[in-house]
Structures are given as structure tokens and as C-alpha cells.
């Protein structure tokens, strides 16, 4: 398999964690988002959306969207299930992941922040937008975990929820968000002691700057 | 089952379509988003995120996030599968749905448009933001369907992709987007002839204004 990604993309980090959890080997292709590699014709042939990550699988097919890639990996490689339990348990795990993937991440990615700058927002305004987005979203995430046991989001095993939480926590730190969510912070610490998270951290990647 | 929704919420419409496709009965509870019902303490007990839809299932459990609800319904009620085919086929269907759920919808919902107004954007500026978001996203969606046969997104049966496309097309019309995507427009027309889409249209709901 071949993963097209960028060390600092939180969506690419999600896929690196899923691949590591399942013990899968893959090659990496580095798409430098700040240099605009994602808009190069060669990359648009891989993913017409111009987004990372994209995963080339055995037969040359290209998968896009980190959520779809994680679901695919979970169906094809059932070891270390990302969505364990009953349909209801799986729905709760997915809802948590989507609360990040659909409510937080799209509103604080580079593309949107650049659009806000084009509308006349200065650095402080853009930063405040990202901080407010993340804080509101994490309030909801903390509430979604009410009554759930640790050390991970949903019990004693890593799930899709943790895979989405940890890269978003890294973004929160990068934007200087005050981390006022004790449960989320504990989960992040537990995850970062796990080798699948540790080894895939952005700063450990070959393209890290 | 009890669906908490709002006639004009495209996320609630997705769930209405999924329930209709599977032939499931449910009661509706109307949460008036423009009156702020979603921030009322009674609703926040149902969904702490303050978003619609939320689905109460048989044992009183509450499911949130339209994507998680659709996946749950597909697992528990396998008739009229929303994700037919191989793992690769399912990944393509999911990637299309996520291209709408993660890349378009979050950037043009009421909450975000209100934030843009608070930053000083006038009506025209907010409308232009929504239009640009939808147009860029639909360019990618049309490309993702390259090589796929109709009349629906992925062949002769309705899938999760169609459930996400049609409500987003309605939003596009509402924002006055020029619909320059022939394939998406044809799929929308085919879907709106299907009873699961027809009967669940926003204007057919009891809370429509």
C-alpha cells in the first residue's frame, strides 16, 4: 500500500495510526501542502479533490477521505477492530469520530483559514476562529464521553474515536487552545503512550520540518 | 423510534430518507432551529451537541450524527443496503458521502454563516462563501463519480451517496448556486422520482413553513 500524506495533516495522521494499529506495511509519498503539491496535476490524478490522505491499495485503486480509508481497513483487516461491540456501541464510537471529522476539523483546516484571510481577517482573527471552533467542538466531545470508562475514549481498547481525537488535540495545541477538558487530555496521554500513536506522530515523519 | 429533526435541516433529511428506504416507522419531534429550540435545556439533554438530527431507538438510547445514524440503521436493518458491494465499493460510496458531510455541509450551515456575519460579512458575502463552498465541493463530487454508471451515484440502487447528495443539492438551489454538474443534476432528478426521497422532502414535512 502507498499512503499519500503530509506530516502535519491531521487527516493523514489518522490513517497512519489505523495502519500501525493493524500492523500493516506501507510506503509513504509526501505531498507538501504548504508548497501546494496537492494542486499539482500529478497529485490531482491520484485524488481529484486535491486533499490528503489518499491510499493506493494492492490493485492500484486509490481510496480517499480518511474516514472511508479507516472503515475500509477495518473491513479488510479485522485485527485490532476500530469499531468493536454492538451496533449501538459502534454508533457511539462513530458519532464521536464524526463530531471531530464533520464539526471541528473542516472549520479549522488550512484551506478555510486562508479563505478567512482573503475576507480580511488578520492573524489574530483567524486564530480566534480556530480556537472557538475547537473549544465548542471539544465541549461536545467531552459530553459524548459522559459515563464511558477509560483509559481510551470507549474503554480499554483504542477505537476510531481515539484515532480522530489525538490528531485534533495536536491541532488544538498548535492553535494555543487552553485544554480545559480533563477527560480528553487523559485519553490523549494514554494514547500517546501507545506505540501506534507514538511512532506515527507528525514530528517523527520523514517529511517533518 | 423517534426522530428529532427540522424540516429544512439537510442532515435530518438524510435520516428521513434512510428510514424511508428501509421501510421503518418512526415518530417525529420538531426542533425549530431558527427559533433556537436546539439550545433549549430539554433538547440539550437529548443531544448535548445541540444539533439535529437525533434518533431515539427502541431502548431509549439516543443516536446522534446523521452519518452514524445511517450506519447504525444499515447494520440493524439490512434490507435495501446503503453500502452494497465489496469493501472497495463501500469505500467509494462512503468517500462520496464524506466529501459532502465533511467538506461541504459543515462550511455552509447556519451556525457557520452566523459566525461569518458576526465577523462583519454582509448578506452578499455570506452567500458568496456558501456558493463557493458548494461549487468547489461539487466539482470534486462530480469527479468522484467518473466512470460510474447511473441512474444513481453508484449504479442502479440508491446508496448512502445519494442520501447525502440530494439534500446538499437542495441547499445549493437555496443559495442560488448555478448547477453546472450534469451528472449530479441527473442523479438528483432520478432520486426525486423515488418515493423514499419524494415523501421525505422538506416541504412535505409537518413543520414546514
UniProtKB/TrEMBL annotation, chains A, B:
Annotated ranges, domain GST C-terminal: 86-209
InterPro entries tied to this protein: Glutathione-S-Trfase_C-like (IPR010987), Glutathione-S-Trfase_C_sf (IPR036282), Glutathione_S-Trfase (IPR040079), Glutathione_S-Trfase_N (IPR004045), GST_Zeta (IPR005955), GST_Zeta_C (IPR034330), GST_Zeta_N (IPR034333), Thioredoxin-like_sf (IPR036249)
Group of enzyme by EC: isomerase
Presence of the UniProt keyword Magnesium in the record: no
NCBIfam families in UniProt: maiA (TIGR01262)
Family in the record: Belongs to the GST superfamily. Zeta family.
Name recorded for this polypeptide: Maleylacetoacetate isomerase
Provenance organism: Asticcacaulis currens
Gene it is expressed from: maiA
Amino acid at each position: 500500500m502507498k499512503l499519500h500524506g503530509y506530516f502535519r495533516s491531521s487527516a493523514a495522521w489518522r490513517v497512519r495510526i489505523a495502519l500501525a494499529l493493524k500492523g500493516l506495511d506501507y510506503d509513504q509519498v509526501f505531498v507538501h501542502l504548504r508548497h501546494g503539491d496537492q494542486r499539482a496535476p500529478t497529485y490531482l490524478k491520484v485524488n481529484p479533490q486535491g486533499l490528503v490522505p489518499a491510499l493506493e491499495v494492492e490493485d492500484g485503486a486509490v481510496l480517499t477521505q480518511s474516514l472511508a480509508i479507516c472503515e475500509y481497513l477495518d473491513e479488510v483487516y479485522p485485527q485490532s477492530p476500530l469499531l468493536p461491540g454492538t451496533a449501538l456501541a459502534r454508533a457511539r464510537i462513530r458519532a464521536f469520530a464524526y463530531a471531530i471529522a464533520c464539526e471541528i476539523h473542516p472549520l479549522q483546516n488550512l484551506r478555510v483559514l486562508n479563505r478567512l484571510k482573503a475576507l480580511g481577517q488578520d492573524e489574530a482573527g483567524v486564530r480566534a476562529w480556530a480556537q472557538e471552533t475547537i473549544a465548542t467542538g471539544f465541549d461536545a466531545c467531552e459530553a459524548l464521553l459522559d459515563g464511558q470508562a477509560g483509559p481510551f475514549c470507549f474503554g480499554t481498547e483504542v477505537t476510531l474515536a481515539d484515532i480522530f481525537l489525538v490528531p485534533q488535540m495536536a491541532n488544538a495545541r498548535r492553535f494555543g487552545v487552553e485544554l480545559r477538558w480533563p477527560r480528553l487530555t487523559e485519553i490523549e496521554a494514554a494514547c500517546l503512550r501507545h506505540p501506534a500513536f507514538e511512532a506515527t506522530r507528525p514530528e517523527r515523519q520523514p517529511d517533518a520540518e
